[in-house]
Task: structure prediction
Amino acid sequence: MLTYVINGPNLNLLGRRQPHIYGHETLADVEKRCADLAAELGLTTRFLQSNAEHQIIDWIHEGREEAGAIVINPAAFTHTSVAILDALNTFEGLVVEVHISNVHKREQFRHHSYVSARADAVMGGFGTHGYLLALRHVALSKSA
Ligand code: DQA
Result:
């Protein structure tokens, strides 16, 4: 079973986008680290990014057939998208929500997450390590 790692809007600019908040690593760096760790853990990952809400929803729908787990950083859609929550509610596997920054330390509007109403686990403030911790959680959950 695959693990989908889905990234939302503006994360294509990781490394260049507000590096004091999100760090200097690019999304390609994160993808590589995820692929290396996944291989070590015996997981297969599909790493995805889109700025379009409908594309993220389509990948979640596809994941219903293809994926055992979804690791998702919905970025700004976290705070706005009932549609992504509804899509995740149709998915039966493990869902881990990841945020690079600690959203609770930031503006009030980032404190609410629609996605957390479905997520089995939530990572925030671990920087890009959050993705790796999420994959470790997927692997540990599979072997539990
Ligand atoms: C983010 C936090 C969101 O509030 C923000 O809109 C993002 C990235 C994070 O990874 O810390 O784009 O999800």
Summary: Residues 10, 73, 75-76, 78, 99-101, 103, 110 surround DQA (CB under 6 Å). The first strand starts at residue 2 and ends at 7. Residues 2 and 44 are 5 Å apart (CA to CA).
